[in-house]
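R.M. (postdoc): so does anyone remember the format we settled on? I'll just put the structure tokens first.
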């Protein structure tokens, strides 16, 4: 059973929380607090993903600069997107990307359009489910009379 990004999005839903790059950091932080999430996708005027803005990005800038204004544009704090995935990517392919690129979120793009986001948590959950399925199948095979 090889799981794909498409299956993850079908299970968790493909709701995407986005914010424009010129919007204020405070707006992004408020949105994330209200929705109980740790990151949002930063998009351009056409809706294409530019980056990811996370609580971690903001915290690091505060430490780096000693302060970080809440009225600054989100694009100044976001992590640029270096990698997107498509719905047909496998969980293993995505795990390799988050490990190699040291990213916690992967925007999912189909036909040039943002259609979801998978997080490292989504990928770990899917990986565990795959392993549990394999263990169950092997156990049943071994116990077959």
């Amino acid at each position: 059973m090889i799981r794909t990004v498409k299956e993850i999005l079908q299970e968790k839903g493909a709701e995407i929380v986005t914010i424009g790059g010129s919007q204020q950091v405070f707006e992004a932080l408020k949105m994330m607090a209200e929705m109980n999430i740790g990151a949002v996708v930063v998009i351009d005027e056409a809706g294409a993903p530019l980056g990811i803005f996370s609580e971690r990005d903001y915290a690091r800038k505060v430490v780096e600069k000693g302060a970080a204004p809440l009225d600054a544009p989100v694009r100044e704090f976001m992590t640029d997107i270096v990698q997107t995935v498509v719905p047909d990517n496998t969980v293993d392919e995505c795990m390799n990307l988050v490990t190699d690129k040291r990213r916690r979120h992967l925007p999912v793009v189909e036909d040039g359009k943002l259609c979801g986001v998978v997080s490292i948590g989504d990928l770990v959950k899917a990986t565990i489910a795959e392993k549990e399925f394999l263990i169950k199948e092997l156990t049943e095979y071994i116990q077959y009379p």
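R.M.: ...and that's the designed sequence above, right after the tokens. Also worth knowing: The chain has one domain: 5-143. The chain is about 45% helix and 20% strand.
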